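From the pipeline queue, job 12 of 40. The input is one protein chain; the requested action is below.

Action: predict structure.
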Amino acid sequence: MAQIVMWVFFIGPWLLLFAVDKERVKRYMAVSLFGVVLLTMVFQIADGFNWWEVNKTLFFFVNMTPFPFGIFIIGTLFIFYFTYPGFWMFMIIINGAFDLFQRFVMNPIFEKLNIYTLKEMNHFLLFVLMMVVAVLLFLYQKWQDTAFKLSIK
């Protein structure tokens, strides 16, 4: 069952890209990829500090779930797609809601399926970590906007 859930969270979100404006997707793909880099680094730091233990993953990942490369990258893209440039809409209403959904719905499912186990980090700190990542993503997108404006001139 865990393998099915991981494959669905890995491949399923990518199918949503067929239903959206391709030009807007291009605009936010860089921040989504930056988010993958950040989350990959978080997984490596978490492994070193024993924040959580990944018990099950897909065959080509080591010490991390497929979460960053599936639902996270597409979720980030969609959050920016529908909320950017409004910071409060991005942070509180959408990102906060998604992070709370992760905290109260996805995490218990992943833990019940023994995909990962929290060790030195609790659920509240995981929520705070995800909100910090969200702020970094927003700042990166702001920087990207200025970089594109400068290159056009």
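Job complete. The beta strands are 52-54, 116-118.
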